[in-house]
Structure formats: structure tokens, C-alpha cells
Write a structure and sequence with these properties.
The protein is of the alpha/beta class and 342 residues long. It folds into two domains: 66 residues, no CATH class; 218 residues, Ribonuclease H-like superfamily/Ribonuclease H (Nucleotidyltransferase, domain 5, 2-Layer Sandwich). Helices cover 31% and strands 12% of the residues. The N and C termini lie far apart (114 Å).
């Protein structure tokens, strides 16, 4: 038998009356001298050309066939190997009908962990690092006696320049300021007695001040027992009053009334009507304490940011807030040492 050729029946036309056996190659789509569409395919079911019928030659290697209902699993298939089934020969890298090759960039791993990596304790701790440091600062301040039982706090925002050249200087020089149109905006809640910053929110200005009150005050209540909150007319909103008084437990919210070009003269909201009728001007005068915080913050730590992207500028602002609070604690510790040696 010639290697690589399958034995066939006797030819229908005999030459010179001799009983000759012809050998016709079948591996290129030939069957009895005619072209077929199946390539090297040997049917596994019952039939004349099945693997069980061909008992001689190379067909013996295919004698152990699987049942029709069984098929090889492809869940953990290596994309680099060829697909070879038990009922057919290899096809030089072609994909068998009914099976799909996984993507080139992805591979199945049997030892994949069954948990979400984004919710791991390590990454959660990194996200809460700023809050933990700020909590530690206020716990030290409470031990030193800086935090009162009933604190009066103020909320306000300021802008930080993205370059050491101020916008006011460029406008006075008559230069174009289109590229300095947006800046980093820092909204804080500060303690009026100790001038510590209880919470900070970073955004990109110019924008409205009112939407930033909810997040900033909610974070400040976790570190500071606020009983009275002072704010300018930019934070005037009935929703802000209700959040502070009804949900966060702040007894008094002194926020200046903003008319907003109200032509009808009707003020909506009970808390806003109280601010318009009986506004506590004497208490509201203490709001300048937050302006003093901004003045010291910019004089000591600078009024411009060195980072280039918005995300890095936000991180830099939060680090400056922590540094500012630590400077106050260091100053208090230094004064206590001086009193001991006097």
C-alpha cells in the first residue's frame, strides 16, 4: 500500500483485459475521480466510507470515535493549537464548523479569582485615605481642646490659579486671557473658632456655588459638630436648608436670601421666607472667618497650583488642605512647649 493513498475498488474500464487496481489520491477533495466539497472528512456514522468500514491502512487510527451526543469542550481552549476532532483529519489551521476561536488578546485562565478586584480592601483603603487622615487630624485637635461641643462653621469657595501669573495682572496688562478662562475652584467648610478646614470639594470654575453645599457639608458633619452654618447668597436654596436642618441635624442655617430676579415677590420655602423676614445680621457677620481662612491658606501655601491636569489639581488641593490643618496643630503644639519653659 502506498503511504498517503486510500485503496479503492477496481476501475470500471479495464485496460488490455488486465485486472489492475488504480490508486486515486483523496486528500485534496477527490472521490472516485470527482471533486467534492468536504476536505479529508471521514464520516463517523454508519456508511460505506465510515471509519468502521475502513479496517485497513491509515483508517485504523480513527477507530476510537466518540458518540454523536458527545463533543470536545472548548471552554479552556488554547488559541495557539489546531482544532482536531476525532472524526476528521487536520485542516491546516482552519476552524471546524460550529466552534469559534477566542480573541487573540484574551486567554481563558482556569485559576481566575471569583471576586471583583475593584472592591478589594486595599483599593478601598486608598480611596478613603484622605478621609482617614482628616479624621485623625480632627481627633488630635479635639484632644488639644480646639474643637468645641457646639461649633459655628462657615461655607465659602475660592479660585486657585493654574499659573503663577494672576488673571487680574493679565487683564491690567491688556493681554489676552482666553486660555485662563477656567480655573480650579475650592469649596470648604471651616470652623470659625479654630480655623480648621472640616471638608473640601474641588471643582472647575466658573460654576454655581449652590450644588456644592450638599457634599461639602455632609463630609464636614462627620468631623465637626456643627450647630450653626453661615453662607452667602450663592448657597441660598430651600433644598440646602432642608438638608442641613432635617437630615444633618444642624440647628440653624444662616444663608443670605437671593432674590434671583423674582418679579412676583413670592418667596417659596419656609426657611427662605424666614431668612427674608428675620435675617440675623449680627450672627452673619462672623462669616468673614472663612475669608480669613482663605487669606492664610493662600499666603502660606500659595495661590496657584503646579499640577497640569484637573485630576492632579484636585489631589493637590486636598493635600494643601491637610497641610494647612497640620500647620495649625503644629503651631498649637509649639505654643504649648513655649508655655512649659516659661
Amino acid at each position: 500500500m502506498i503511504h498517503g493513498l486510500w485503496p479503492l475498488k477496481k476501475c470500471e474500464s479495464l485496460r488490455n483485459g488486465n485486472n489492475l487496481i488504480s490508486f486515486v489520491p483523496r486528500w485534496k477533495g477527490f472521490c472516485h475521480g470527482k471533486k467534492t466539497r468536504h476536505n479529508d472528512q471521514i464520516p463517523s456514522g454508519p456508511g460505506k466510507n465510515c471509519s468502521t468500514h475502513l479496517q485497513t491502512g491509515s483508517a485504523e487510527i480513527l477507530s476510537n470515535t466518540l458518540e454523536t451526543r458527545l463533543h470536545p469542550a472548548t471552554a479552556f481552549h488554547n488559541p495557539g493549537t489546531e482544532t482536531i476532532l476525532s472524526d476528521r483529519l487536520s485542516r491546516h489551521g482552519r476552524i471546524t464548523k460550529g466552534f469559534r476561536r477566542p480573541a487573540k488578546d484574551t486567554e481563558n485562565n482556569q485559576n481566575t479569582a471569583f471576586y471583583n478586584a475593584t472592591k478589594s480592601p486595599a483599593k478601598a483603603a486608598k480611596k478613603r485615605a484622605y478621609e482617614k487622615l482628616l479624621t485623625a487630624v480632627f481627633s488630635k485637635a479635639a484632644d488639644r481642646g480646639l474643637i468645641e461641643q457646639r461649633c459655628q462653621a462657615s461655607i465659602d469657595s475660592t479660585g486657585l490659579e493654574s499659573s503663577y501669573l494672576s488673571r487680574h495682572f493679565l487683564m491690567r496688562r491688556g493681554k489676552r486671557t482666553s486660555r485662563y478662562r477656567r480655573w480650579t475652584k475650592l469649596t470648604i467648610v471651616g470652623d470659625n473658632s479654630s480655623h480648621l478646614i472640616a471638608a473640601a470639594t474641588v471643582s472647575t470654575g466658573p460654576n454655581n456655588d449652590c450644588p456644592h453645599l450638599a457634599q461639602t457639608v455632609t463630609e464636614a458633619v462627620e468631623h465637626l459638630p456643627i450647630y450653626q452654618l453661615l453662607g452667602d447668597s450663592g448657597y441660598d436654596s430651600e433644598a440646602n436648608h432642608q438638608l442641613c436642618r432635617e437630615q444633618l441635624g444642624i440647628i440653624s442655617t444662616v444663608i443670605a436670601y437671593n432674590n434671583r430676579r423674582n418679579s412676583s415677590g413670592v418667596v417659596r420655602g419656609c426657611y427662605r421666607r424666614q431668612m427674608k423676614k428675620r435675617f440675623p445680621r449680627r450672627k452673619f457677620r462672623q462669616r468673614w472667618q472663612v475669608e480669613s481662612i482663605f487669606s492664610r491658606f493662600k499666603r502660606r501655601l500659595g495661590h496657584f497650583l503646579r499640577s497640569r491636569s484637573d485630576q492632579s489639581r484636585g489631589i493637590e488641593c486636598l493635600f494643601r488642605v491637610l497641610t494647612y490643618n497640620l500647620m495649625i496643630l503644629y503651631l498649637l503644639f509649639k505654643k504649648s512647649l513655649i508655655k512649659q519653659y516659661i
